[in-house]
Each structure stands twice: as structure tokens, then as C-alpha cells.
Amino acid sequence: MSQSTFTRIEDSSTGKKLAGPVGWFDDRLGLAAAGKKNLRKVFPEHWSFMLGEIALWSFVVLLLSGVFLTLWFVPSMGEVEYRGSYAPLYGIEMSQAYASTLDISFDIRGGLLMRQIHHWAAALFVAAMMAHMLRVFFTGAYRKPREINWLIGVGLLALGMVEGFAGYSLPDDLLSGTGLRFVDGLIRSIPLVGSYLEFFIFGGEFPGEIIIPRLYMAHILLIPAILLGLIGAHMLLLVYHKHTQWPGAGRTQENVVGYPMLPVYMAKAGGFFFVVFGFTALMGALIQINPVWAYGPYNPSEVTAGSQPDWYMGLSEGLVRLMPPLETTWFNRTWTWSVFLPGVGGLGILFTSLALWPFIERWITGDQREHHLLERPRNAPVRTALGVAAMTAYACGWIAGGNDIIALKFGLDIFAITWVLRIGIFVFPVIAFIVTKRICISLQRKDNETLTHGWETGVIDRSPDGGYAERHAPLPDSSAYQLTSSRERLPEIEEVHQQDAYGVRNPKYRKQSLRAKLRRFYYDGSVDKPTRHDMDHAAEHLAGGGEHPVELGDDFQGVSETGVPRVH
Ligand code: HEM
Ligand code: HEM
């Protein structure tokens, strides 16, 4: 045995040799030292940090329930006559994939429950990812040094959607076949290569006989493996960068305030896994999802009215429904823009903008610093407003995906809905942008007001001359720190000139002036946080009775989480 191995055993973690099975493993893996460092890692607390965890745990539920389904699902498009226990379909010709899905639903013990858990977990997985992404976006958590983790996230979201779609297509019922037909249309609409791609993917003309086995391979092996790798990288980077935290007393860009991984966080996260599992199991047990037996086997010549994709595919469906007909004939060929632009272009624009945003924002603001304190959405009004505008556009496209159902349920005219959304998808985001930006700026002003004039106590004094005035009390230091510590001071935006004082042309004029314009747009309307001098001055003013300082007597109950003092 080499000397170095011997030393490692003796030195592991505390320098003491561990006893029993733990010692046996530590002798061979030396994990105690690594564990000691990492298990004490501190994780900050906030409810919004649970969204990423919901994504993580619903993925685990998908893996577990998915493995169960693979035991019984037959990924074949070979025709069989149905001989299972669902009487209405007895004797009908169908693919083995569909027949096995019916078997899972009716003849395998716990099969229907597992299918429903799997499907609900898939819907939850994508929803949690999106909510988590919005939390990261609106708090600026993607800023340096977390851009790579953001990019991994964008990849996870895209792959998660493809994975969900592949799963949805597997049972080969009428609904899933209709979804596949839609995607076939998207593929074919791609100029020049569309029909070649279709033949390549479907092994000939749609639907062919190999798409289900191919999707199966992608669904249970290829994509989950990539997802697993990416999630691993996502978590490693999270540990490496450490988690961001909300500003607050004692929290700086250099530290992390929270609970250690072991035992507190581990117990919480472990418990949370069971909550997510329990929740999806309850949904799977109580709420029906994708009753494939009601749709019948896939037949390319049939489509049922009211066919709907899973919720996360609603956007592409809706955008295609919104697009007015647009076709050109060039070189003796038809170019179908009405499918390509909304279907492929729409999602392309969405994902490209998501991936590029951290870099675009950084270019505009010129901010090269690291950020470990989260930014309140109000303190980045243009970012917040752009996010809300994008969500509004998404909502318009998404609602359009169900225009037929909305028309039927609410007795409305489908063309009226389509036209409102067609115009709305351009107009509503602009309104949302303006309104959100104004709200953010008003909230910034309110913060400034609280910082310089103290908080409103709700105690009204009547003066001898009959006037009324509310008493203000100075903000405790911790609350003032919370309101100001992550708030950026507004930068000076320099004028860009085409020539310098000596008449020499500025070769970078166009780039610099575009950047200055965007920077002005980015900071437009924002108000700067009060300076130390303003705050000291205000404190003196308050203490001097200018604003009727209040004695904080028994009614003062400390400061709430949001920094507002509690009074009863
Ligand atoms: C499979 C999907 C995903 C899983 C399992 C996952 C998991 C997590 C977890 C557990 C955290 C730490 C807790 C939290 O802040 O919520 C986290 C942080 C983070 N995630 Fe994700 N995430 C996923 C998708 C995404 C997506 C779609 C994005 C963005 C496009 C993203 C970007 C980030 C970033 C930038 C952080 C660091 C945030 C910080 O330190 O404040 N993630 N992720
Ligand atoms: C992010 C991960 C995953 C997502 C979003 C997802 C989504 C889906 C969806 C929506 C279905 C259709 C369910 C239905 O019939 O109502 C499905 C089916 C299926 N999934 Fe997954 N799944 C994932 C991971 C997995 C994994 C890891 C496996 C296997 C190890 C798996 C195996 C299956 C099988 C065999 C089916 C067909 C059975 C059936 O439809 O009843 N899935 N998946």
C-alpha cells in the first residue's frame, strides 16, 4: 500500500479514523473531508427558492413513474386487435402502443394511477421550470456569474418541452396522433429542407411506422439522460457560485445567510420531495388526465373537435391559429409562411431572446460586477416591464390555442376572439410595459419617501390651528439597509459625439450611440436612491420635530420581513 493512501485514511475529515461501515467507505472514498465542507454549505431561505426544487422533485417523480410505465408499454406501431378489458374498443384494430397504453390503464394494477401521476408530474415539471425561470428573471439572479446556469436552464426548459411532447405522442391515440400531425406540419413548413426533414424523422411519409419507436428511444433514454446531465451541471454550478439571497440585515455580496445543508436544509428538501410526490400522487389519484380510451386509436383522416395539446405546447398552437394566411409562390414552389413564421419562428424568437437576454442587458448597462444579492423587481423597471410584456404576449398566444373551446364555452364568435388576440398580441404587451414600468417607478418613489421621511405611523395629530398631520418615525437601520443595499445607483450616461474636439471622427460612433440610447431607455424614469447625506439630513429633520417624531412605545412590534415596522 502506498504511503499517500495511508495518510489519507488517517487525515480524512477530522484526522480521526471513522468506525464501522462509514469508516469502511471513508477509507476507500475519502468522502468525509469533502462532506464536511459541503454539508455545512449554507442555503438562504425564501419561498421563491422552492420553485427550482419543485422542478427538481417533479423530475424525480417522472423518472420513477416513467420506469414503471416502461415495464408495460410496447413501443410499436404494429397492428393488433384489441383484446383487453375495455369493452367499447374490444376487437378494434390498433397499434400495439395504443393497446399497451389501454392495458396499463385498465389491466395492470396501479397502471392508471402511474400514468396519471406521470402525466400530472410532466405538466407540473414544465410549470415549475417556467415559474422558477420567472423568479430568476425578475430578481436579476442570472447576472454575473450565473449566466451559464441561466443558459443551462434555457436548455432544460426547451428539452423538457420536447420530452413532454414525445411522451404525449407515445400512446398513439387520436389526440396524440393529432399533436404529431401538427408537429409534422411545422417540420414541413421549414423552407427548402422541410419535406426532407419530415422523411428523415418519420422514415417516409407521415405517420409511417417508426415514429413511435424513435420517440420512445428519445423519451426514455436520450432526452432524460441529457436532462439528468444538465440538471447535474445546474446543481454543481449552484454549489460553486452559492445561492443568491435577498438583501437584508447582515446580508452582503460576500456572504450567504441561511441554514446549513445538513441537517436543516437536507431535511427540508427531503421533506419537500415527499410533498411534491404526495401532491402528484393525489392529483393522479383524483383528477383524470388524458383518458386515451375515450379518443380511440390514431387515424390520420380523423381529428376530434376540441383537440388540445398539453398546456406548454399551447403557445405554438395558438400562434399558428393567430397567423393570417400568408403564402408565396417562388421558383414554382409554395412557401407557407403562415405555419413557419408563427410555429417555428415564434418559439425560435422566444428561446433566442431568453438565451441572449443576460448578455444584452449586460451590454446595455455595461455592468461588469458580480451580483449575489437579488434585485427587487421594482428597482429594474425596464427589465420588469419587458418581462411582463413578454408574459402578456405569451398569454395572448396561449389563449389563442384554445380559441375554439373559449368560443364554445362562452358562446363567443371564434373570429372575434381571433381578431382581438391578433391585434392584442401586439398592443397588450405595450400597455403592459407602460403600466408595469410606471408601477415600478412609483414603488421606487415610495421607498425613497419612506427612507427620507420615515414610515407612516398612522397616528394623526391635530394642530392648534386645526390642521392634520401624520406622525412619521425614522426607519430602523436594518430596514433602511434592506431597501438600499441591492439598489443600484443610476449611472451617468455620457453624450456620444460623432467627432472629438479636434474634429477626428469617432470610428465607434454608431455602436456607442446605439448603446447610449438603449442605456437611456433602460434607466429612463428610474429615481435614484437617496444619498447618505439625504438620509442623515432627513433623520435630523425627523429628530428635530419637523415631521412630528413619534415615541416608539409599547405599540411598536419590531420590523416585518418586508422592512415595514409592525405597529398595533
Ligand atoms: C429541470 C429544470 C430545473 C431544475 C431542476 C432547476 C433547479 C434549480 C434549483 C433547485 C435551484 C436553487 C433553488 C432556486 O433558486 O430555486 C436553481 C437555481 C437556478 N436556476 Fe434552475 N432549475 C431548472 C431550470 C431552470 C431554468 C429553466 C432556468 C432559467 C432559464 C434556471 C436558472 C437558474 C439560475 C440562474 C439559478 C441560480 C439562482 C440563484 O442563485 O438565485 N433553472 N435551479
Ligand atoms: C422530463 C421527463 C418526462 C416528461 C416531461 C414525460 C412526459 C410524458 C407524458 C406527458 C406522457 C404521456 C402520458 C399519458 O399517456 O398520458 C409520457 C408517457 C410515457 N413516459 Fe414519460 N416523461 C418523462 C420522463 C420519462 C422517463 C424518464 C421515462 C422512463 C424511464 C418515461 C416513460 C414513459 C413511458 C413508457 C410513457 C408511455 C406510457 C403511457 O403513455 O402510458 N418518461 N411521458
If you had to describe this structure to a student in words, what would you say it looks like?
This protein has helices at 3-11, 20-29, 31-39, 50-72, 96-106, 111-138, 147-169, 174-188, 194-202, 211-241, 261-286, 314-322, 337-365, 381-400, 403-410, 414-453, 477-484, 509-523, 532-543; strands spanning 42-43, 79-81, 93-95, 259-260, 327-330, 333-336, 455-462, 468-473, 556-559, 565-567. By secondary structure, it is mainly alpha-helical. The protein has 3 domains: 3-39, no CATH class; 42-248 and 261-303 and 315-374, Up-down Bundle (Cytochrome Bc1 Complex, Chain C); 438-567, no CATH class. Strands 1-4 form a two-stranded antiparallel sheet. The chain has a two-stranded antiparallel sheet with strand order 2-3. The protein is globular. The protein starts with a helix and ends with a strand. The relative contact order is 0.09. The structure holds protoporphyrin IX containing FE (2 copies). It catalyses: a quinol + 2 Fe(III)-[cytochrome c](out) = a quinone + 2 Fe(II)-[cytochrome c](out) + 2 H(+)(out). It is found in: Cell membrane.
